[in-house]
Every structure is written in structure tokens, then in C-alpha cells.
Amino acid sequence: MAFVPKAVPWRPEHQIQRLQVTWNQLETEEQAAFLLGGASPRHLYLACKQKNKWGHPQGYCIQLISIPGEPLPQNSSLESAVSWGRYQLAVIQRKETEPSSSSVFNQNDPWTPTVDVADSINNETIAGKDLVAWVTAGFLYIPHAEDIPNTVTVG
Length: 155
Description:
Layout: E1 2-8, E2 11-20, E3 33-35, E4 43-51, E5 57-63, E6 87-93, E7 131-135
Antiparallel strand pairs: 1-2, 3-6, 4-5, 6-7
């Protein structure tokens, strides 16, 4: 989205700033990996070449509105086990050899994790490819006395 100056039809000597959708095609995985806390698009549209019945490209729209807490510092020896936490969103080429962004086994040896999603972001082209969008969403819950004996969370 970008503000674009437009003349007011009934008062052409005045201008207004109107929001307008802007389209930028991202070509590589690096361009489509948005670090947590960094600049990110308001909407990300993953389109394919097929058109819907109105002539628009079919696809998926992702809105980033849930921001998880701070990620581990990248210089932490444990960070590669949870490198998915660096990104609000990462769009990569779909590959059978990269079926997940993490692994339950990462907790067993976080210093040499089984899966490190950062290794999947290697500047390959994404234009015209089958894509995977890894979206990080989260919340912070601080336990308190009323939680005993159970911590209530949304499923």
C-alpha cells in the first residue's frame, strides 16, 4: 500500500492522499523472507498464472497482523534450532526435501538441529514456482497464580 496524491474532483486545486495497492513481484527467497521487526508488506499475495472467473490471478493473500515476541539473538548457540523465529514470513520454493520449518528433534540437540529453516532460504528464484509460505504467529502468556492446577490457553 502506498499513498498517492490525487486531485479532488470537485476542487481540482486541492489534492488528497489516497491509499493505493502497489504490486511488486518478488523474484527470490531472500526478497521474500521478512525478518521479525523489519519492514514487511501489509499484504502478500501469492499468485499463480491461472485466472479466476473475473480475470484476476488465483492465489492466496497473507496479512501480517500477529507479531510474536523477540527472537533469540542470532549469535546464540541455540538459535539455529529455532531460526524460524527470525522471520515473520518466509516464502520459499517448495521441495520434497524441505517438508517443515522445524523438527521436534531439534529439542534433543539444539546445537546441531535436525531442521534449520534458515538453510532453506538460499536465494533461489520463486517466480513461477510452487511455493511454501512459513508464517510465524505467536503470543506471549505469562503464567500467574490463577492458572494452578491448569494453564488455560487457546487450542
